[in-house]
Amino acid sequence: MTRKYFGTDGVRGTANAEPMTAQTALKIGMAAGRIFTNGDHRHTVVIAKDTRLSGYMIEPALTAGFVSVGMDVVLCGPLPTPAVAMLTRSMRADLGVMISASHNPFQDNGIKLFGPDGYKLSDDMELAIEDLMDNGLEEGLAAPARLGRARRIEDAAGRYIEAAKQSFPRRMTLDGLKIVIDCANGAAYRTAPTVLWELGADVVKVGVTPDGININKDCGSLHTQLLRETVLMHGADIGIALDGDADRVVLCDEKGSVIDGDQLLGLIGHSLQARGELTGGAVVATVMSNMGLEKYLEGHGLDLIRTAVGDRYVVERMRADGFNLGGEQSGHIVLGSHATTGDGLVAALQVLAEMIKRGQPASKVLRVFDPFPQLLRNIQVADKALADSLIVADSVARAVQDGEKRFDGKGRVLLRKSGTEPLIRVMAEGEDQDLVDSVVGDICDTIQRAAAEAV
């Protein structure tokens, strides 16, 4: 069944344009509220948001939708996505909602839904919500006496701060470490620096002055120049950069070198294995993760299990097969023993603990393997329909097959479309950088020619 509203990570788009309008948010609240209202008890939904200006439009629209079908709403204000997942479980809520477009610029926004177990909803559940949004919402409206109520809670941030601190090893502190934290002017601008400070670190804060439109702007996990410059300027031991909703992280060592999620998966995976705490003998990652990670894990007797792109698919595989570590190259790190979704701060705390344990600088601890040369290029096309047709075009398929033959088993090619934009992503990796560049270039040229012919 084709999705109309939901993509790879909830509903996302330009604010005040479909599907991110107040009207659609209202319908999502009504439909999701209907589906998650079962039984005679009072039903509750937890709603948080990042710092985007459009959150002031989406939040009340969602609230109205939930209240109209008899669900009580708990409003938490700006909080990281993992905090919503945690609060949904700890408050025994029926549903959790995060209003965020993650790493996207301020003009975008999104809606992520979590079930009562704190996990993102399945594809089937999202399709059920979509179906209800367009078919008979009025039938489920609550009687006047059964309307829901909305309230704000003041201790939501404090609850998450304590939960994050509990993920750090007991009797260990961050005393003596100078840490730069870049919060991307996003959801963690208060909570992340507080956690690091209360654990003992000397904290240098950047990206902590949100104004509604500067979220992810020249800062955060996608724009690391500010992080690197600040680490070097202050002589910090390490830098941590979160994205707009703080579910992903990249790190920077004391020399200004940036470390991605693949390196973190390798480091944390080996650390958990050494402590006998890694379940299933494997790490779960996506098809985007570097072959160098795979070789590194194999060298330690561990498997790399690959899934489709999207942390929700990583988590689904972790849950299905009993793994407790997974993530993405982009910095989504899911520690199943501590969280039900990616948590950039909690992942960073595990790395800091490993640095303290080894007594070595970040540059010695963070880079655990040499990555294979890898190149990713995005080809923008007119619309999503054209992307759908181009990705299965015969000429494009032949170009991909030719690239795979040229690698001769010593590299790989990946072609996929974006779940939120009219983009085709072309990625290749192998032992030879020149060959990688050539393969990607040839495939991109083929896609662009096919796109021009389709106009």
Describe the structure.
- The protein has four domains: 6-155, Alpha-D-Glucose-1,6-Bisphosphate, subunit A, domain 3 (Alpha-D-Glucose-1,6-Bisphosphate, Chain A, domain 3); 177-258, 3-Layer(aba) Sandwich (Alpha-D-Glucose-1,6-Bisphosphate, Chain A, domain 3); 261-343 and 353-365, 3-Layer(aba) Sandwich (Alpha-D-Glucose-1,6-Bisphosphate, Chain A, domain 3), CATH 3.40.120.10; 374-454, 2-Layer Sandwich (TATA-Binding Protein).
- Helices cover 38% and strands 21% of the residues.
- It has helices at 22-35, 55-68, 81-90, 123-133, 156-166, 191-198, 225-234, 261-274, 291-299, 311-321, 344-358, 362-365, 384-390, 394-407, 433-454; strands spanning 6-7, 10-14, 43-49, 71-78, 95-99, 108-114, 150-152, 178-182, 202-206, 238-242, 249-253, 258-259, 282-286, 303-307, 325-327, 333-335, 374-380, 411-417, 423-430.
- A seven-stranded mixed beta sheet has the order 1-2-6-5-3-4-7, with helices on both faces.
- A hairpin with a 5-residue loop joins strand 18 (411-417) and strand 19.
- Helix 1 packs across helix 4.
- The radius of gyration is 22 Å and the shape is globular.
- It starts with 5 loop residues before the first strand and ends with a helix.
Uncertain segments: none
Count the beta strands.
Answer: 19
The overall average pLDDT, rounded, is 95
* SSE-based structural type: alpha/beta
For the record, what CATH class of the largest domain applies? Alpha Beta
Radius of gyration using CA atoms only: 22 Å
CATH architecture of the largest domain: 3-Layer(aba) Sandwich
> Within the CATH hierarchy, at the fold level, what is the topology of the largest domain?
Alpha-D-Glucose-1,6-Bisphosphate, Chain A, domain 3
Q: Please state how the strands of the largest beta sheet are arranged side by side.
A: 1-2-6-5-3-4-7
Largest sheet: 7 strands, mixed
- The separation of the N and C termini measures 27 Å
- What amount of the residues lies in strands? 15-25%
Task: State the domain count.
Answer: 4
The percent range for helix content is 25-40%
Structure annotation, total helices: 15
Q: Quick one: overall form?
A: globular
Q: By CATH's scheme, which homologous superfamily of the largest domain applies?
A: Alpha-D-Glucose-1,6-Bisphosphate, subunit A, domain 3
* Quaternary form: single chain
